[in-house]
Write a structure and sequence with these properties.
alpha+beta; two-stranded parallel sheet; 20% strand; globular
């Protein structure tokens, strides 16, 4: 971060004061004198060490000048402008040779003496002015990059949404960006469960039997024409809730998986359109969940449940879900112990991901 070294006004005042002490003849010496100091007596403000000339030279007998590239550069430019604009007479050159305050310890015949007009111009080239200029540029650049990132992410989600016949509105740009920035695997909280059994065959995992404890979930019911439309629109609503659109005004943090409750007809031949998309509230929010601004989102407490879980990858639609339901039903020894018309799809990656990690859950009857 850039830091201010000397404000323009304070630099100008300090420079004038130091010039009064450098012993150089000056047309404006009366103006440069400080209260309580006689002409020729040093007046050294706290910001300039004794003996230093603000132009980079030093008063007679003083220590070597400090390294101050900003002040030296500004004064050098000012003197060069004056030198080009006003040709020097022999008398002026003689005065400079006998005792002028020279830039950077220049030899006689070098740049002209510093005057009040030069100091007035220093405010335009001072470190503080550079700070404001560069600071503003950095802020504008940061804002531009942030806007470009938002547009890029929004365009990507809109492109994915069109593939599922879902319109991703512009007001999703900020939640999408915030969720993407916080998409650190180490910071995701996995829903806690107790592993009861793992069923394997020839080294391949067939399913897991788990127990999930009683917990609060933020839920939203959807009933779009297609399953993909329901989960995309429902997930976007939950994203807004997670990303500060809640009574706490805070980013709540992502938990995985995001789950969707689906239902089938009695013959388990097809899915119904009604689904519930749910977000597990982080442990620290379980006792007092933030209130959603969206009235469609309901906080529900689910009882402790035993599930049979099987992993699968790829898209989730009516066909793939029904295939996974039938496959797990064949693998389980006693599928009749589970609900026959209600299942859960657990998603470990967002709906916009190309290769999703999913699970199908069978729910054991209470």
């Amino acid at each position: 971060m850039l830091q201010r070294r000397l404000k323009p006004q304070s630099m100008r005042t300090a420079s004038k004061a130091a010039l009064a002490a450098c012993g150089a003849p000056c047309r404006s010496s009366a103006l440069l004198r400080q209260p309580g100091a006689q002409c020729g007596q040093p007046y050294i403000p706290p910001s300039l060490p004794a003996g230093h000339c603000p132009g980079g030279g030093r008063a007679e007998g003083g220590p070597p000048p400090p390294s101050n590239p900003w002040a030296g550069r500004a004064l050098h430019k000012a003197a060069r402008r004056r030198q080009r604009a006003q040709p020097r007479s022999p008398a002026q050159l003689g005065a400079m040779e006998t005792g002028g305050c020279r830039m950077g310890g220049a030899e006689p015949g070098g740049p002209a003496m510093i005057t009040l007009e030069d100091l007035d111009g220093m405010a335009e080239e001072s470190p503080d002015s550079a700070y404001h200029s560069n600071g503003s540029s950095l802020e504008e650049e940061a804002e531009r990059m942030e806007d470009e990132e938002q547009e890029r992410l929004l365009s990507y989600w809109q492109s994915v949404g069109r593939g599922h016949q879902v319109d991703v509105p512009r007001d999703m740009a900020e939640p999408i960006q915030q969720l993407t920035r916080n998409n650190n695997p180490q910071e995701r909280q996995t829903i806690p469960f107790t592993l009861i059994q793992r069923k394997e065959k020839l080294g391949d995992l067939l399913y897991e039997k788990r127990q999930y404890g009683k917990a609060k979930w933020a839920c939203i019911k959807m009933k779009e024409k297609q399953y993909e439309q329901s989960i995309c629109l429902g997930f976007m609503k939950l994203m807004r809730y997670i990303c500060e659109q809640n009574s706490s005004g805070l980013y709540l943090g992502i938990t995985i998986p995001i789950v969707t409750i689906v239902h089938t007809n009695e013959s388990q031949s097809e899915m119904t359109q009604a689904v519930t998309v749910a977000y597990y509230l982080p442990e620290v929010l379980q006792d007092e969940p933030p209130h959603p601004f969206d009235s469609d989102i309901i906080i529900e407490e689910w009882p402790s449940t035993i599930v049979y879980s099987r992993s699968f990858r790829g898209i989730t639609n009516e066909d793939s879900i029904m295939r996974e339901i039938n496959l797990l039903a064949e693998i389980l020894e006693s599928p009749e112990l589970c609900l026959q018309d209600t299942f859960i799809i657990a998603g470990y990656t967002n709906p916009a991901a190309a290769n999703r990690h999913n699970e199908i859950w069978f729910l054991q009857r209470p």
